[in-house]
Amino acid sequence: MVRVVVAEDHALVRQGIGMLLQSAGDFELVAETAKGSDVELLVQFHKPDLLLLDLALSDSSGIEVARRVRRVAPNVRILVVTGNVYPGSVANAFGAGVNGFVLKHEQGAELLDAIRTVMDGRRYISPQVAKGLDSSANKRPNAQGLPQTLTQREQQIVRMIARGGTNQEIADALHISVLTARKHRQNVMLKLGLHNGAEIAAYAMQAGLMEAPDVGSNL
User: Fold this and answer.
1) Which residue has the higher pLDDT, 218 or 61?
2) Is the distance from CB of 99 to CB of 79 less than 8 angstroms?
């Protein structure tokens, strides 16, 4: 019986994964959480064989969680189950010690195949993830050196983070909720493969983003 911990910030997704594991018959869901801050302790306490990990948890980056887990539980298998795939996040996730990468919207059979592959000691990248990586590799950056997938709103977020803006300040400036601002921050960091405000500031300077003002923003 494979013991599993699930770290996923959407309750419905956690429930769906739990039902899938139960129906498969050879898995035991020993713990689940929506918070990255809980994962390390859950892994140490329950000693699972497998961690199913979302990259955009409610309070932290899944990549940082993977690094912390790998330090305290070097033998646990880590399979990323996430909603979006960006080349930077895939490379950084594998660099943090994960064993596989699969998308949430894929079929349950795909997830079970991914689980069995990583539990067999092999690396797994789902066909949809591999296709996305191939597509990104064939794209050239635009004249400013920005990824073509970075939207105008995401460029705003990058500038605000680079200037030291908090989630609350970003929310106030863009007239959105703090939760939405936090999600924007997480998505930008995943898309660019960056981990903190200092790295975003360096990226913004290199890409020339700091020169562009944000309309309606005091940041």
Assistant:
1) 61
2) yes
In a shared domain, residues 121 and 167: no
The domain that contains 188 carries what CATH number?
1.10.10.10
Is there a single domain that holds both residue 38 and residue 96? yes
Q: Encode pLDDT of 146-171 as tens digits.
A: 554 678 888 888 888 888 888 899 99
Beta-bridge partners for 79: 52, 100
Which one, of 133, 113, 218, lies nearest residue 173 by Cα?
218
Q: Note whether 14 and 65 are same-domain residues.
A: yes
Same domain, 24 and 130: yes
**111-137 pLDDT tens trace:** 999 999 999 999 998 887 777 665 544
Residues 77 and 131 in one domain: yes
What the block records as the tokens of 140 is 């050239």
Show the 3-state SS of the chain: CEEEEEECCCHHHHHHHHHHHHHHCCEEEEEEECCHHHHHHHHHHHCCCEEEECCECCCCEHHHHHHHHHHHCCCCEEEEEECCCCHHHHHHHHHCCCCEEEECCCCHHHHHHHHHHHHCCCCEECHHHHHHHHHHHCCCCCCCCCCCCCCHHHHHHHHHHHCCCCHHHHHHHHCCCHHHHHHHHHHHHHHHCCCCHHHHHHHHHHHCHHHCCCCCCCC
Residues 158, 118, single domain; the answer is no
